[in-house]
């Protein structure tokens, strides 16, 4: 099955199977299926992402994404949706809440998860490729590699008051 505008089309044969209610073809700017094909995310012209249950033909939810533009991508396990817009944002599909934003200074032309879902690869309009860690342990490693050392007890107290000090970045 593929998404053509707002219609779901069965292959082979090209027969329209369903059309999400309240959405017309010109409204749709991007689309992505979960790897199992059960959920369709439609990026709409009004900066919303419609989440749609393909089997039941029902709306699962709507996400508001500032500056939304293609692409939309699901993680290999279908648990995370990535949107491009004013930044690259990660959404938890279980809660339909934003769970993070990735530091990328350029407009993402395309996005792709690594097969294990730990890295998000982003291609910019200038052809440059960024490899962005999305797994928490990889994010911590990346931050520590950039800063070179962890927080001292004094820095911790100044930046994170009220929470007991613990070593970061190996000390």
TrEMBL record:
List, alphabetically, the InterPro entries matched: Quino_amine_DH_bsu (IPR011044), WD40/YVTN_repeat-like_dom_sf (IPR015943), WD40_repeat_CS (IPR019775), WD40_rpt (IPR001680)
Key words of the record: Repeat, WD repeat
A Pfam match: WD40
Residue ranges of WD repeats: 28-62
Record-linked SUPFAM superfamilies: YVTN repeat-like/Quinoprotein amine dehydrogenase
Q: What is this protein called?
A: Uncharacterized protein
Classification of source organism: Bacteria, Bacillati, Actinomycetota, Actinomycetes, Streptosporangiales
């Amino acid at each position: 099955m593929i998404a053509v505008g707002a219609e779901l089309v069965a292959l082979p044969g090209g027969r329209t199977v369903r059309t999400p209610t309240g959405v017309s073809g010109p409204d749709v700017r991007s689309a992505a299926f979960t790897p199992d094909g059960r959920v369709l995310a439609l990026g709409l012209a009004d900066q919303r992402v419609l989440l749609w249950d393909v089997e039941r033909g029902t709306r699962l939810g709507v996400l508001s994404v500032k500056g939304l533009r293609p692409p939309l991508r699901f993680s290999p396990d279908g648990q995370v949706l990535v949107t491009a817009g004013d930044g690259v944002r990660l959404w938890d599909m279980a809660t339909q809440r934003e769970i993070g934003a990735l530091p990328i200074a350029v407009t993402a032309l395309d996005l792709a998860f690594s097969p294990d879902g730990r890295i998000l690869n982003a291609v910019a309009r200038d052809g440059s490729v960024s490899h962005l860690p999305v797994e928490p342990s990889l994010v911590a490693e990346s931050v520590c590699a950039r800063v070179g050392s962890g927080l001292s007890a004094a820095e911790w107290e100044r930046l994170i008051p009220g929470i007991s000090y613990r070593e970061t970045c190996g000390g």
